[in-house]
Amino acid sequence: MSKKLLHTPEGVRDIYGKEYARKLEVQKKLHESIASFGYEDIQTPSFEFFDIFSREIGTTASKELYKFFDKENNTLVLRPDFTPSIARCAAKYFMEAKEPLRFSYLGNTFTNASKLQGKLNESTQMGAELINDPSVEADAEMISLVIEALKNTGLKQFQVTIGQVEYFKGLCQEAGLDEETEYDLRDCISAKNYFAAQELLEERQVAEPYRSVLLKTADLFGDLTSLSKMRQLVHNKRSLAAIDRLEQLYKVLKLYGVEKYVSFDLGMLSKYNYYTGVIFKAYTFGVGDAVVKGGRYDNLLHQFGKEAPAIGFMVVIDELIEALDRQKVDLPLPEEKTRLIYDSSDRNDFAAKLAEAKKMRAQGLAVELVARA
Known about the structure:
Elements: H1 17-36, E1 40-41, E2 47-49, E3 67-69, E4 75-78, H2 83-93, E5 101-110, E6 122-131, H3 136-152, E7 158-164, H4 165-175, H5 179-190, H6 194-203, H7 210-216, E8 221-222, H8 225-232, H9 237-256, E9 262-265, E10 278-284, E11 292-296, E12 310-316, H10 317-326, E13 338-342, H11 347-362, E14 367-371
Parallel strand pairs: 1-5, 7-9, 13-14
Antiparallel strand pairs: 2-4, 3-4, 5-6, 6-12, 7-10, 8-9, 10-11, 11-12
Helix pairs in contact: 1-3, 1-10, 3-9, 4-7, 4-9, 5-6, 8-9
């Protein structure tokens, strides 16, 4: 090579020193909370077969995947998302299990995103998945766990916004929308792009009153009282059942004592098509995107041959650390290391300093031996 490569590719970066120490501390705090709810650690490969993240699964678009081939010419991808990998793993090793399965993971995800989005293409995520439990209590457990985990990192000012995919899908079904229109409208509403949604509905000739009601979903957010207003806008069983579920969820969240952190937004949707019910995101000031994303995906494991309801969430570690930094939240960092200087020409001096270092290390201190210049 004619010149040395010292820079990383676009979309990735090095982390070292105190910044990396802070990252490790945040991960430790999050893991403490997740483990306290009974979740066990699991590790899946950094790359999988392409089909694990296919359009049928409902995950990341193909153009945003890092794809390559193995020696048998199978198409492989770096994982853009943990949930399909966990679902595959659960179906493989716990096919016959009926009791609730609680998994926790930590690792990096890779998305070949445009540089215009201003995001890293490699990010660290920690999350939890609860499989084989369809109950509203399971929904509440995951949301409460998110709140407790964020509090444990020192974050104080944040809000968990809860949506319900079934409300939107029921409304689209009631309005007679085809699948393509539903997907396009979901993207507009998810981006809170009211004008694009209005233009789409007019272009597809969606009749009133459904056009107006669908547009209102972009603004359906607030506290518990807003759910009654949302109920009045629909008449189909699917959407009404979604409201019932949210009201039940709120009652359980009150038992956890976390209701002050919760709000509702039925215009909140996800780019992942595998979500089937409750979805949620945690927001805080200092960053432009959610620091936590999650939801229920009751049909995803079916794609791998296992019939099992599931719900989960992931914390975007890098976004969370940025929020903590901007909010000036102090994180305990490792104590400064002790430096012991020895005379390299004096073997007895080295032996003495080495003995001293061993004693200090046994006490949990960080010690480096350095030869006198």
